[in-house]
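User: What would this chain look like folded?
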Amino acid sequence: MTRVLVVAEHDGRRLDPATAKCVRCALDLAPEALVVAVLAHPGDAIAVQAAALAGVTEVLLVDAAPNAAPLAAVLAPQLTSLAAGFTHVLAPSSTFGKDVAPRVAALLGVGQISDVLAVLGAHRFQRHIYAGNAVVTVDADPARCTVATVRLASYAGVGPGPAAPVVRRTLDVALPTHTRFVALRSDKGARPDLQTASRVVAGGRALGSAQGFELIGALADALGAAVGASRAAVDSGFVANDLQVGQTGKIIAPELYVAVGISGAIQHVTGIKDARTIVAINKDSEAPIFEVADVGLVADLFKAVPELIDALRARGGR
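Assistant: Here's the prediction, encoded as structure tokens.
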């Protein structure tokens, strides 16, 4: 009997679209039970949103004060307790999922399967290797719980369905005291979330400085897009590392991806290869990014981007 536990990702108020994508992956396992675990405080509104996802048979809500902040060290022991009786535990391959899923796997004493892009059977999966240049088939031990993260760029989220029951759970689990929540700082502001945005504008080291990188924010605002960055831009201190796109950052699949001043190293291309349309702006006509771009502009970004922003604003922005 296949029983799947999906770990819900949320911001304390709203369910993240990544959860719906995990549910889509879970449905490929043809489970007899598909349960979403919501650990939050307060969590009633989030649980209702999770219960409305098509295919979900039940929502387990653990509403406790320690769950007010998404600390992996606190969530993992509770998820391990909830995992009893389940054959699979799935989490999104987002910053959140990459943090919590390995801890759950370690506590369960199993290896984790990362970035699942396809389900071939109850315990057989596909994932990318070699920076996305090859696909490997991985078999999990059917006698043990399978813990995996789901590659969000490979799945569309499920839509709404009949409301599933919400069951409140109280767990008697010893939680660690060595980790505590201090503060949350984010550069995202009112822009869309990078992981799930339909439009993304990203900048590279060619912007030259944090001040120069403000051009990327202006273009993103004109397009109603999220902001991303190459690893080189992050390492140079232009922006925070939560905006990094690529193999060691976030793997995304927007409808539109605009790469400004990004050379296109293979590690970066791995993170954007599933984008529907890729636009590249770079003064180097030999830059590798042009090999994967659908539209390329060889130009000085400090001249081309302001002109593009003005043109978008003149047409109403979008």
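The helical segments are 17-27, 44-51, 72-82, 95-108, 214-223, 231-235, 266-270, 301-314. If you want, I can go into more detail on any region.
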